[in-house]
Amino acid sequence: MKLSLLAVFVSFICGVTASAEVQTGDLQAGAAYAEKVCAQCHATERSEASPEPTAPPFQDVANTPGMTGTALRVWLSTSHPTMPNIIVEPQNMDNVIAYILSLRD
């Protein structure tokens, strides 16, 4: 619920819709980064359960109503109380965002 509210809020503030956004990034590099950095807690592949029950599977994140690349950028750039303080470097950010959004149903 919190994630969907964040996505709606960011989309509203930025005036961006999913259809208006152009995604850039390397899906394979994003998948490799997710497997290396994120898979310890999140399910990074389709139809998996997350190893950490409080960490949403990336497919659920991608399917959150109103989720956009902009919302993901904010989400990945903001620390969360239940998440380690991981800083996604700018060169990896577009790749991870493209990969997560590729998991949409």
Describe the fold and architecture:
There is one protein chain. The protein is mainly alpha-helical and 105 residues long. The chain has a single domain, classed as Cytochrome Bc1 Complex, Chain D, domain 2. The protein is 50% helix and 0% strand. It contains 5 helices and no strands. The longest helix is centred in the first third of the chain and has 13 residues, at 2-14. It starts with a helix and ends with a helix.
Rg, nearest Å: 13 Å
Q: Supply the number of helical segments.
A: 5
The assigned structural class equals: mainly alpha
The portion of residues assigned to helices is: 40-55%
Reading the helices and strands in chain order gives HHHHH
**Strand segment count:** 0
**Biggest sheet architecture:** none
The CATH architecture category equals: Orthogonal Bundle
Q: Do you know the CATH topology?
A: Cytochrome Bc1 Complex, Chain D, domain 2
CATH uppermost class: Mainly Alpha
Shape designation: globular
Note poorly predicted spans: 12-20
- The pLDDT mean sits at 83
Q: Give the termini distance in whole angstroms.
A: 19 Å
Domains, number: 1
Tell me the β content. Answer: under 5%
